[in-house]
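Regression test case RT-17, inverse folding.

Input:
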């Protein structure tokens, strides 16, 4: 399991959290972004509201058996770049990332175009209220499910196997799963005297395996059932291992790191609230601050095993900070202190990602053990993306107020001391 960014990050060579963030932002490199294309797919006239609209849409879960939600299909693409862009958009939806995905649907690279097309399928199904037209999502489904593309064939199996979006056709569904498996093997072996095809090393086949499991559970008389039972049993073993991992995770050194990340981020938000309250016009922002506290409290109560917080709170506070007038010396110090805390949390998240990589790699050859920390890794990775974007935006906002930059070397030393002190219970 390697970090899921672009460049060196995709190969697991990043040495610092700052470097990782720079490499992650490199996934957009080489794409001349035109946010005007967004209107061809989604009805979000004011791009400043796009983030809020998709944050709300991404809260939808258990949408259907065929399409549980967009996050279900993470790590199911053929190419690293589309996977990184898709994951980045789900973690922190921004116009540039969405525009890049749309533009890649028109790419001359067939693999990237196919991946980006499936990304459109998933985003339209997740946020149908934001689609440019009511039929956009189904148009993409019809366009993609017949393509000789791994992700498209796996989704085809769900469409025809579960019978919610089209008449049930189990032979078609199983044929699509076989095609997907053949494509994966073909791509992994390609390049010897022929055209090299990519198959993302982060694609562990989890969605394909889960689809087999779902069909076995739904269809006692599934054709050629014994052929598929091994895959279904493997998926059940993986899910059992992931549940067991989640139960013990809070007592591990990595779990304690997650808890510390939550504590540090909340401290940063509290300092920001104090800064805003002290500012000229702070009284006018009191209602927004109360809403922010409500949001923070609800997230704290609903927090899952691996999550530390949704970025909504930090984004909303950043908007309030933009309305604050001149900063006095104490406020400037508070702004720097809050940013230092955010970077501290970022460093700990990077440490967690690295630790989870090592944990998975140490189980090489045992697929169940390798996949057990996968959900913890994905949450840490999403949180790290969010942290990269948020700290960059705060750095820009502070620079505009002439607040000196934070000493990142000092932060890195603090992170090393903290994460080095945690032990498994």
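Golden output:
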């Amino acid at each position: 399991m390697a970090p899921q960014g672009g460049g060196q990050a995709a190969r697991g060579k990043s040495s610092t959290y700052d470097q990782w963030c720079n490499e992650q932002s490199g996934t957009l490199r080489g794409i001349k972004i035109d946010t005007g294309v967004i209107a061809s797919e989604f009805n979000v006239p004011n791009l400043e509201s796009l983030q809020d609209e998709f944050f709300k849409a991404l809260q939808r879960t258990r949408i259907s058996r065929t399409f549980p939600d967009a996050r279900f299909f993470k790590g199911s693409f053929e190419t690293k770049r589309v996977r990184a862009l898709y994951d980045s958009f789900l973690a922190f939806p921004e116009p540039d990332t969405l525009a890049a995905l749309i533009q890649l649907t028109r790419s001359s690279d067939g693999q990237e175009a196919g991946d980006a097309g499936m990304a459109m399928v998933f985003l339209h199904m997740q946020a149908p209220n934001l689609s440019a037209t009511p039929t956009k999502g189904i148009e993409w489904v019809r366009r993609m499910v017949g393509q000789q593309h791994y992700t498209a064939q796996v989704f085809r199996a769900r469409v025809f196997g579960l019978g919610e979006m089209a008449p049930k056709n189990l032979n078609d569904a199983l044929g699509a799963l076989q095609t997907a498996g053949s494509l994966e093997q073909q791509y992994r072996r390609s390049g010897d005297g022929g055209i090299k095809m990519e198959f993302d090393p982060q694609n562990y086949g989890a969605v394909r395996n889960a689809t087999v499991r779902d069909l076995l559970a739904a269809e006692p008389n599934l054709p050629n059932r014994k052929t598929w039972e091994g895959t279904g049993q493997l998926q059940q073993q993986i899910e059992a291992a992931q549940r067991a991992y989640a139960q013990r995770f809070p007592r591990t050194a990595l779990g304690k790191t997650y808890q510390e990340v939550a504590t540090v981020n909340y401290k940063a938000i509290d300092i920001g609230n104090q800064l805003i309250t002290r500012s000229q016009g702070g009284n006018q922002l009191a209602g927004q601050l109360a809403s922010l506290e409500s949001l923070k409290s609800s997230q704290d109560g609903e927090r899952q095993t691996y999550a530390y917080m949704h970025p909504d709170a930090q984004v909303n506070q950043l908007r309030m900070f933009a309305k604050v007038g001149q900063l006095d010396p104490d406020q400037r110090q508070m702004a720097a202190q809050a940013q230092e805390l955010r970077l501290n949390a970022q460093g700990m998240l990077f440490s967690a990602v690295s630790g989870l990589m090592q944990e998975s790699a140490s189980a090489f050859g045992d697929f169940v053990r390798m996949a057990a920390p996968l959900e913890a890794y994905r949450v840490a990775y999403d949180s790290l993306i969010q942290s990269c974007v948020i700290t960059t935006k705060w750095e820009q906002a502070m620079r505009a107020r002439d607040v000196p930059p934070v000493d990142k070397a000092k932060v890195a030393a603090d992170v090393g001391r903290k994460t080095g002190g945690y032990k498994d219970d």
